[in-house]
């Protein structure tokens, strides 16, 4: 669908996609529209900042052992309330909730499962830097009675849809249902999502990497090797200079990569050797991997395609390397060469 003079709304885009690719049954379209509406409401809270008393901590801890921010909880509640009554969902799971949230049976039960990181980039909330919401959609396995946490433990390849909303200078919703990646900008006057980019492609090569450099001494040798070579630039084996960016909001770093290319890494490190990484597989890595792959990029944990990983628990963590295909392939090759002993 071409982004031309004619304004295309989110609903028009989804209907067209259904006509062209048959990938969006009505329940899934309804789900995506409801998530998009919830993101609009979260955007309003985010924009209020200190005026809306949404800054600062909530004083409680989530299942990850992180101090929750007020906006983590506000965004979580907005997504639950918006999605529980529509009849398109059986259950939800969130970074901010230990167990799954089964849609109360006073509401019609739907056939989809929704997972989300209600507020991504929490460390940037109080400093007015771009933050976001990330979501992933799965089908509830047909044969299961009721719904359980096990129903969620499906590989990323089973995702029916994935996306994020970035709350930055513009509010942008980025979406895939498995037929490419589209971007919608929120028209605040109209309160509507307008298609502003379609068939988004990530360039295979890049000169821009994103990683939290302050963790370098904790990385495994293949990771250090890759970054050392980038830093050596023209004088080293790469023969070209690299630039670095790190916003510390995954949504914003990935949005930059979907917009102009680049490679994003949050590798394993020996600060917490028992953890595979910092980021969560189900509602951070898998949805971002789906988007990046649909835009022609790649996403691995240093060894395996992230979308092929079989999840074992809801809040499982994973090492993440994603973005421009050739760089991700190089980083993965370095890990495999190193035999990946204890890098994952
Ligand atoms: O502070 P660090 O170590 O650079 O980590 C930043 C990373 O942590 C995150 O903030 C984790 O996500 P949450 O904010 O949803 O917990 C990512 O968005 C970001 O990429
Ligand atoms: Mg996050
Ligand atoms: Mg979060």
List the helices and strands and how they pair.
Layout: H1 10-21, H2 26-48, E1 57-61, E2 67-69, H3 70-83, E3 89-94, E4 101-102, E5 112-120, E6 131-139, H4 149-152, E7 161-167, E8 171-176, E9 181-187, E10 192-197, E11 208-210, H5 221-232, E12 243-244, H6 250-260, E13 263-266, H7 281-294, E14 298-300, E15 320-323, H8 325-337
Parallel strand pairs: 3-5, 11-12, 11-13
Antiparallel strand pairs: 1-2, 3-4, 5-6, 6-7, 7-8, 8-9, 9-10, 13-15, 14-15
Bound molecules: 1,6-di-O-phosphono-beta-D-fructofuranose and magnesium ion (MG) (2 copies).
Task: Describe this structure as you would to a colleague.
Substrate binds at residues 120-123, 212, 278. It is found in: Cytoplasm. Pathway: Carbohydrate biosynthesis. The chain folds into two domains: 10-197, Fructose-1,6-Bisphosphatase, subunit A, domain 1 (Fructose-1,6-Bisphosphatase, Chain A, domain 1, 2-Layer Sandwich), CATH 3.30.540.10; 208-339, D-Maltodextrin-Binding Protein, domain 2 (3-Layer(aba) Sandwich), CATH 3.40.190. Helices cover 30% and strands 22% of the residues. The chain is globular, with a radius of gyration of 20 Å. It is of the alpha+beta class and 344 residues long. An eight-stranded mixed beta sheet has the order 4-3-5-6-7-8-9-10, with helices on both faces. Strands 12-11-13-15-14 form a five-stranded mixed beta sheet, with helices on both faces.
CATH superfamily of the largest domain: Fructose-1,6-Bisphosphatase, subunit A, domain 1
| Percent helix | 25-40%
As laid out across the biggest beta sheet, the strand order is: 4-3-5-6-7-8-9-10
CATH class type of the largest domain: Alpha Beta
Q: Report the mean per-residue pLDDT as an integer.
A: 95
Strand content: 15-25%
Q: Hetero groups bound? A: 1,6-di-O-phosphono-beta-D-fructofuranose, magnesium ion
| CATH level-two architecture of the largest domain | 2-Layer Sandwich
| SS content category | alpha+beta
Q: Major beta sheet, specifics?
A: 8 strands, mixed
> Could you give the order of the helices and strands?
HHEEHEEEEHEEEEEHEHEHEEH
CATH topology of the largest domain: Fructose-1,6-Bisphosphatase, Chain A, domain 1
Low-confidence stretches: none
Count of discrete domains: 2
Q: What coarse outline follows from CA principal-axis ratios?
A: globular
The number of E-state strands comes to: 15
- Report the total helices: 8
- Spatial gap, N to C terminus: 40 Å
Radius of gyration: 20 Å
């Amino acid at each position: 669908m071409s982004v031309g003079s004619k304004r295309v709304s989110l609903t028009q885009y989804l209907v067209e996609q259904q006509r062209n690719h048959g990938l969006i049954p009505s329940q899934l379209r309804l789900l995506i529209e409801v998530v998009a509406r919830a993101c609009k409401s979260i955007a309003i809270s985010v924009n209020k900042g200190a005026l809306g008393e949404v800054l600062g901590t909530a004083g409680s801890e989530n299942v990850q052992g992180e101090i929750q921010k007020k906006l983590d909880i506000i965004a979580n509640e907005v997504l639950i309330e918006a999605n529980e009554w529509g009849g398109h969902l059986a259950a939800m799971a969130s970074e901010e909730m230990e167990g799954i949230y089964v849609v109360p049976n006073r509401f019609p039960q739907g056939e989809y499962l929704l997972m989300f990181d209600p507020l991504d980039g929490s460390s940037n909330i109080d400093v007015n830097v771009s933050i976001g919401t990330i979501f992933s959609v799965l089908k509830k396995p047909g044969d299961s009675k009721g719904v359980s946490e096990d129903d969620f433990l499906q590989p990323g390849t089973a995702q029916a849809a994935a996306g994020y909303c970035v709350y930055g200078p513009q509010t942008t919703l980025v979406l895939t249902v498995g037929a490419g990646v589209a971007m919608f900008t929120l028209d605040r006057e109209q309160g509507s999502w307008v298609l502003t980019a379609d068939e988004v492609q990530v360039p295979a090569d890049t000169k821009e990497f994103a990683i939290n450099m302050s963790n370098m001494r904790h990385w495994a040798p293949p990771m250090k090797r890759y970054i050392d070579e980038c830093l050596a630039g023209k004088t080293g084996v790469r023969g070209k200079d690299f630039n670095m960016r790190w916003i510390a909001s995954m949504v914003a770093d990935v949005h930059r990569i979907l917009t102009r290319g680049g490679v994003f890494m949050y590798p394993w490190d020996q600060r917490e050797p028992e953890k595979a990484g910092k980021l969560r597989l189900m509602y951070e890595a898998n949805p971002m991997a789906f988007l990046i792959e649909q835009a022609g990029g790649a996403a691995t944990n240093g060894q395996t395609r992230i979308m092929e990983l079989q999840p074992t628990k809801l809040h499982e963590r994973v090492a993440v390397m994603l973005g421009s295909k050739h760089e991700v392939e190089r980083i993965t090759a370095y890990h495999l060469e190193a035999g990946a002993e204890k890098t994952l």
